[in-house]
Amino acid sequence: MVLAQRFRGALNLGLHFHVLVIDGTCSAPATNLLAPPTFHEAAPLTDQDVAEVVVRLRRRIVKYLRRWGRIPRAEHDESPPLEPDEPLFAQLCAASVQGRVALGPNSGAAVERFGRESVDQRPRSRPGESCCDVDGFSLQAKVRIEAADREGLERVCRYVTRAPIHLERLSLAPAGKWIYALRRRWRDGTSAIQFEPLDFLARLAAIVPGPAKTRAL
Predict the structure, then answer these.
(1) What's the number of domains the chain is made of?
(2) Residue 138 · residue 125 · CB < 8 Å
(3) Would 215 be classed as within a structural domain?
(4) pLDDT tens digits, residue range 3-38?
């Protein structure tokens, strides 16, 4: 099962995919196709396995985007606009991805954060974490649910199908700004993001898919 999500934990645009797969294969005896299939569990993933997948995906995705003219073919080329016929939507998406204010007098500035520390001392990856990041392409394959753990499976399914915004984490500051608490602290200690009302609406607009139409992406 593959589920696409356009949002991340800070209500910012970030297309990613959650994939639920069976950790192995099934086979049936060739002499008796009506016999119950036998499950063959796959070998545990290694950090090297995850890294090889990320490198291969990055190469193929970049090649695909270049072929359709979505990113420059060479360093000296200019990047094409995200949505040439929807410049405002492109502006909202770009600001959301970069974590910046999209509209208003503070357009282009970084969004306000709470709890941020001056130095990031947490390591980005550890051996055995089944996680890899290459030029912004990342894969995390550590979560594994045992066959009999139905509660664990339900918990994972609820997480990957969650709504983009949790109202219990949203609050209105006395000054009229919206504060959205993060599910987990970031590496730099950030625990919440603060938005002006107009920029809060811009964030929500950026994570809403545009109208369906025939196009390459």
Answers:
(1) 1
(2) no
(3) no
(4) 888 888 888 888 889 999 988 998 888 787 788 888
pTM more than 0.90: no
Tokens of 178: 């919206």
* Residue 213 placed within a domain: no
Domain contains 217: no
Contacts of 28 (CB under 8 A, 6+ apart): 35, 36, 37, 38
The distance in angstroms from the start CA to the end CA of the chain is 21
In angstroms, how far is CA 216 from the centroid of its own chain? 21
Whole-angstrom distance, CA of residue 10 vs CA of residue 164: 9
The answer to whether position 16 is within a domain reads yes
Residues 6+ apart with CB under 8 A from 174: none
- Give the helix ranges, DSSP H, for 35-149: 47-67, 87-98
H runs (alpha helix) in 85-129: 87-98
What residues make up the domain containing 41?
2-206
Beta pairing partners, 93: none
Contact criterion met (CB below 8 Å) for 95 and 104: no
